[in-house]
């Protein structure tokens, strides 16, 4: 019995002006999949992730989140979502973790974590606080819950951002280079949190340059090149003999 | 020094303080609300509204408040459609005219102050809010406005203090607030120095209190910009 499809993306195209950044990307993520997205700078990884939760609007293509298809229409020659409401609902089901954390600077860590559940999902505050505290405990920053983002290290901020995303109980987590802005000694603490999420069966799409994560944690690796999927397969396969020459060359630059 | 006279003067002037406070608070309130509308027009993306807001801001910041007040007080009655409309009984009142022109003027300044506050909101914080499903008014209320207001607060404090002082102009359209009453006292007693000194002291104390209150609000709203040490009750920050 195949696991349920949490995310299904079909034939996404996206251009910025004349520059075609995504040229027909498709992928399915099943329950519990941990997919690493690799690729050189400028290959369109971030753009792809941002198209999934409509922070960018794809010019063409279909996105289905946990069985719900995002309705698109063409208005004034541009592809657009039909319903603002549906987009907000879909976004609430997709957790996004940014390279630069993007915590809300005027709120404590705990307030960051309960903001979505309380004000977007409109759930009872006390319940949200209890859950958020458990999440902060889980990512190892419970004692920082009353501190403000500016007073935390990058690694702590990123773990807080992960907790904030998890507090929405997302169906799929999207990570855009979550460790790239961190000092090397702080990368491990964030990767450990991501690894334990993966082990709990969270469906994850991770743009990363951490080859160890791609190799050892994810169950599937996708290598993007100039807006297309170049290679796609299990890490053993791609890092073994299966990768394309371009992929070999790419991982060569990481010294692995 | 004639202390009994000073005391008597103080008493008379303080009796006019409620009028000064009423002018001040109503014009700050309505001016603030109007400023929100103008800043929304200014940055909302509609080119016509944006042009209108720019023009508004230019006119009310670029011309003397006193002239604006005279135009409202003496000018509005020139228009038949205003004189015959239901608002005329109100607009005939000097107090209403004074509040109106003070509010119109401060709205121009406040709109610019709020706009600079808005510019300080980081796009990535807005993006993070969108990413959890916030949009529209909720996004403004929970993320954009609180951050923008915190940034705007120091400049806004200055504007509020200016407004306290600007209420003095209302005396020239026959509103009996502190300065107006001071001038009447001088006309009766010819003791310019003492009376104006008393009036100045009232404004100074008032502004002192307002600045203290604003500083307190600012302090309350910006723990995230202070050193971490003061955050943890009992002293040192907990580190891992
Ligand atoms: N908003 C935008 N406007 C114009 N061009 C953009 C925009 N966003 C991205 N691009 C361009 O699209 C291309 C792909 O960018 P993207 O950020 O998706 O790459 P990436 O694979 O995430 O790279 P990196 O590893 O550096 O993060 C780049 O050439 C970039 O300059
Ligand atoms: Mg990127």
TrEMBL record, chain A:
Positions of transmembrane segments: none
Keyword line: ATP-binding, Cell membrane, Membrane, Nucleotide-binding, Transport
Gene Ontology CC annotations of this record: plasma membrane
CDD domains: ABC_HisP_GlnQ
UniProt keyword annotation of ATP-binding present: yes
Molecular function via GO: ABC-type amino acid transporter activity; ATP binding; ATP hydrolysis activity
Source organism of the structure: Phyllobacterium phragmitis
Lineage of source species: Bacteria, Pseudomonadati, Pseudomonadota, Alphaproteobacteria, Hyphomicrobiales
Residue span(s) of domain ABC transporter: 7-251
Keyword hit for S-adenosyl-L-methionine: no
Database matches in SMART domains: AAA
Protein name in the entry: Histidine/lysine/arginine/ornithine ABC transporter ATP-binding protein
Coiled-coil regions, chain positions: none
Topology within the bilayer: Peripheral membrane protein
Main location: membrane
InterPro entries, per the entry: AAA+_ATPase, ABC_ATPase_HisP-typ, ABC_transporter-like_ATP-bd, ABC_transporter-like_CS, MetN_ABC_transporter-like, P-loop_NTPase
Domain of life per record: Bacteria
Family: Belongs to the ABC transporter superfamily.
Automatic annotation (TrEMBL), chain B:
InterPro entries in alphabetical order: AA_ABC_transptr_permease_3TM, ArtM/GltK/GlnP/TcyL/YhdX-like, MetI-like, MetI-like_sf
Domain ABC transmembrane type-1 as annotated: residue spans: 13-214
Primary localization class, coarse: membrane
Membrane topology of the entry: Multi-pass membrane protein
Domain of life: Bacteria
Cellular component GO terms held in the UniProt record: ATP-binding cassette (ABC) transporter complex
A Pfam family: BPD_transp_1
Gene Ontology molecular functions: transmembrane transporter activity
Membrane spanning residue stretches: 20-43, 55-75, 95-116, 128-148, 160-182, 194-217
GO process annotations (BP): amino acid transport
Name of protein: ABC transporter permease
CDD domains: TM_PBP2 (cd06261)
Key words, A-Z: Cell inner membrane, Cell membrane, Membrane, Transmembrane, Transmembrane helix, Transport
NCBIfam families membership: HEQRo_perm_3TM (TIGR01726)
Record family assignment: Belongs to the binding-protein-dependent transport system permease family. HisMQ subfamily.
């Amino acid at each position: 019995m195949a696991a349920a499809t949490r995310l299904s993306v079909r034939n996404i195209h996206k251009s910025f002006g004349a520059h075609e950044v995504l040229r027909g990307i498709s992928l399915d993520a099943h329950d519990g999949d941990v997919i690493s997205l690799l690729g050189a700078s400028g290959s369109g990884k971030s753009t792809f992730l941002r198209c999934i939760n409509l922070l960018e609007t794809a010019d063409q293509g279909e996105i289905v989140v946990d069985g719900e298809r995002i309705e698109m229409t063409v208005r004034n020659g541009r592809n657009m979502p039909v319903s603002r409401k549906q987009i907000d609902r879909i976004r609430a089901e997709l957790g996004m973790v940014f390279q630069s954390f993007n915590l809300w600077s005027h709120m404590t860590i705990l307030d960051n974590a309960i903001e979505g559940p309380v004000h977007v999902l409109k759930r009872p505050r006390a319940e949200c606080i209890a859950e958020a505290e458990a999440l902060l405990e889980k990512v190892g920053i419970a004692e920082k819950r009353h501190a403000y983002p500016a007073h935390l290290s990058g690694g702590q901020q990123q773990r807080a951002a992960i907790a904030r995303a998890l507090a929405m109980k997302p169906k799929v987590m999207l990570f855009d280079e979550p460790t790239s802005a961190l000092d090397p000694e702080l990368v491990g603490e964030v990767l450990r949190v991501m690894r334990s999420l993966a082990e709990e069966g969270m469906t994850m799409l991770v743009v990363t340059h951490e080859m160890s994560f791609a190799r050892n944690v994810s169950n599937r690796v996708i290598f993007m090149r100039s807006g297309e999927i170049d290679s796609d397969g299990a890490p053993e396969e791609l890092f073994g003999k299966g990768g394309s020459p371009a992929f070999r060359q790419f991982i060569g630059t990481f010294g692995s | 020094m004639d202390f009994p006279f000073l005391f008597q003067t103080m008493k008379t002037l303080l009796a006019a303080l409620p009028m000064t406070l009423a002018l001040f608070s109503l014009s700050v309130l309505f001016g603030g609300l109007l400023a929100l509308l103008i800043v929304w027009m200014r940055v909302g993306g509609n080119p016509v509204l944006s042009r209108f807001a720019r023009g508004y801001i230019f006119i009310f910041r670029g011309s003397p408040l006193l002239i604006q007040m005279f135009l409202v007080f003496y000018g509005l009655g020139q228009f038949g459609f205003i004189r015959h409309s239901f608002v005329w009984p109100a607009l005939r009142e000097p107090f209403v005219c004074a509040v109106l022109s003070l509010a119109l003027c401060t709205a121009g300044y406040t709109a610019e102050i709020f706009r600079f506050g808005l510019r300080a909101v980081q796009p990535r914080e807005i993006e993070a809010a969108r990413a959890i499903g916030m949009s529209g008014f909720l996004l403004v209320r929970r993320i954009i406005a609180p951050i923008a207001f915190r940034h705007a607060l120091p400049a806004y404090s200055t504007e509020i203090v200016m407004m306290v002082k600007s209420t003095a102009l209302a005396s020239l359209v026959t509103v009996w607030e502190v300065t107006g009453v001071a001038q009447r006292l001088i006309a009766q007693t010819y003791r310019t120095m003492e009376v104006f000194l008393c009036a100045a002291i009232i404004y100074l104390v008032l502004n002192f209190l307002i600045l203290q209150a604003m500083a307190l609000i600012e302090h309350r709203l910006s723990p995230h910009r202070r050193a971490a040490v003061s955050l943890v009750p009992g002293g040192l920050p907990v580190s891992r």
